[in-house]
Prior knowledge:
Blueprint: E1 2-8, E2 12-21, H1 25-36, E3 44-55, H2 57-68, E4 71-74, H3 78-90, H4 95-114, H5 124-136, H6 141-170, E5 187-189, H7 191-201, H8 203-224, E6 229-242, E7 258-276, H9 278-346, H10 351-386, E8 394-396, H11 410-420, H12 422-442, E9 448-461, E10 464-476, H13 484-550, H14 556-590, H15 594-601
Parallel strand pairs: 2-3, 3-4, 5-8
Antiparallel strand pairs: 1-2, 6-7, 7-9, 9-10
Helix pairs in contact: 2-3, 4-6, 5-6, 7-9, 8-9, 9-10, 9-12, 9-14, 11-13, 12-13, 13-14, 14-15
Amino acid sequence: MLKISFSETSSEERWTLHGRLTAPWVGVLRARWKKNHRSGNERACIVDLNEIKFIDKSGQRLLRTMAKGRAQFIASGIYSKRILENLTAKSKNSLFDRLAGSFFAAVIAACTVRFGAQCMAAGIYVNRGLDQLRIKAKGSLLTRLAGFFFAAIVTVFTVFIGAATARAQNSAVTGSVPSGPASDQVLELTLRDAIKMALRYNLGAIESGQNAQIARGQRLLALSNLLPQVSAGASETVQQVNLATFGLNGLKTGIPTVVGPFGYSSVDASISQTLFSFESIRRFRAARTAEQAAQLSYQDTLDVVTLTVGNGYLEIIEASSRIEAQEAQVRNARALYDRAVDQVQAGTAPRIDATRTEVQLHTEEYNLSVARNNFEVAKLALGRAIGLPLGQQFELTDTLPYSDIDPLGVDDALQIAYKSRSDLRAALDSQKAAAQTLSAAKGERYPTVAANGDYGDIGQTFGHSHGDFTFQAGIKIPLFTGGRIKGDITQAEAELRQRRAEAENIRGQIDQDIRTAFLNLNAAKEQVAVAKQNVELANESLGRSKDRFTSGVTDSVEVVQAEQALASANDQYITGLYNHNFAKLSLARALGLARTNYGQYLGEK
């Protein structure tokens, strides 16, 4: 259900949306938008999304249309902010503008490569496009022109591929790997079981875990440059040589033109060791720190997965509560309709009363159908996130009723978050790894000391063989590298500044998350208290209206209005319960304790 509150002044109009922006409520909002915000209206339009709990694809399209109509959105919740960021990113330019801009950027890149400018690209796809541009800069004029535009098109498409990859990574937390075939039995799913399954089968958790393994592999590769490299082998060789191929057939030396066949056997072993390389030492330390950062990023992803699954679980509970409340509304509306029909047949009420109550009954039945559909969709989303077998039927066993907590103060919470948040610790480790990489780049100017040797035993047979060996040791000093070392240092310095800025940004984000979680938690407490009182008053008002209608003192309009007030009060109460539980879960996430202590914050017994 969607509730729309509209207010306006001479300078602005404000829209406040409550509930779920899904079909068919999208059509209602679109009609209201077209009616109240006509073209040529110069007033500022502000749309408040803080009370929105879910937005489907049609709702996102409508919000994007409103954004093009110069609507300004307000969103402070995690879900609404994420939706707003996606809308903002997608509504900046049309498809034609983006294609034209990307092609123009590719042309500029081609020109800079053609005239000797140095181009740097972070992604492998863009690097491939630039390589194509460099290759196509050679040859005839026609070849260069054809290659130029072909490579430009390749670069444009690779940019779009990279953007699509980034979007896929952002949506990985909502995907999963199905855990196996579905069973015929209905699975009873607790919140703890759902989170355990998600931590194992969620796509974001799997990809993040594999990224940590990739970082471990990179550390092992960096370590291999510091350790001895030992190899051994044995061979048996049979050979025949035609000396005529070397121009020796015309010489009268008594040597036959064809030598052989002859054979020999050999066994050998070799070893090489870098005795000192400051660059390799620093790069190994950077790889080791990067592995620690990857492990912390994996822990942070698990916290995000926990928040996502917990929210999905709460959404199902909320949807189930809405079904129960809506079924009660249908029962009330049906009883009212039957009573109105009896009064009309008895001649004590006009036909209009029966018509009003019948319309109200159909409206409540329609709302019940929407609530049931939202419930099933929410179950599908949760099953998709935790990796349930395809088609597996399940039921929730936890209800998570209202339970208050006694949180810490803001300052204490910030201190805990700064120590516990894995994303901040990962960012600090990434900053440290970038500093070590910079040190390694500077260490490329230092001498490198290495040694290698091999020993073998060779002869016609192993019984008639003799040993041979070589040993080398040397020092290598870079004198002139054509600016390569300077380029590595410049790139490493830029990366260090990026990692430092990212760490400070995460520190600020933690401060915002903590304060937002406390604000949402306090607001949810007030919402639950007020909504509970409204439900009690609405029930009392509905009972009195029914008594008045039964006594013939009033008509059905008053009863229908009382039922609508009760439905609105129930909706506010359910929303308040959801907001309160989600605020507690968000606080656990903000503290970095979502995966370990979510049960404590949700009142789990």
